[in-house]
Amino acid sequence: MFRIEQDIEETHSQRGKTTIRLIGHFQLEHVDELQKQLEQNGARLVLDLTEVTLVDVDIVRFLGTCEASGAKLVNCSPYIREWMNQERNA
Q1: Which H or E run includes 63?
Q2: In angstroms, rounded to a whole number, what is the distance separating the alpha carbons of residues 56 and 30?
Q3: Distance, CA of 25 to CA of 53 (rounded, Å)
Q4: Farthest-apart Cα atoms in the chain, separation
Q5: DSSP states of 35-47 as a string?
Q6: 54 φ, ψ to 5°?
Q7: Could you tell me which of 50, 53, 48, 52 has the C-alpha nearest to residue 66?
Q8: Count of other CB atoms within 10 angstroms of residue 2
Q9: Are 6 and 18 a contacting pair, CB within 8 Å?
Q10: What is the pLDDT of residues 8-45, one digit of tens each?
Q11: Which of 19, 59, 61, 83 has the most beta carbons within 10 angstroms of its beta carbon?
């Protein structure tokens, strides 16, 4: 099961940020919605991965693309971060 929760937050600099909390098993079929958010929000997008329990290689690559596009990844588990680093260096 996978769920997306979205929060709009105001930062101290008065520029809005969109935080998307990802919950559960994140698969390729869920990427379209996040891609839309990335296109709309770019560097103002924060992906909270606290409750992500499982990803595959496609998602790891997608998360790397998000980060390269300016999105911020927070609460990323060490195994996902390490996998992203390996994919980036491959």
Answers
A1: helix 57-68
A2: 12
A3: 5
A4: 39
A5: HHHHHHHGGGEEE
A6: -155, 140
A7: 48
A8: 14
A9: yes
A10: 443 333 367 888 888 888 888 888 888 887 888 777 88
A11: 59
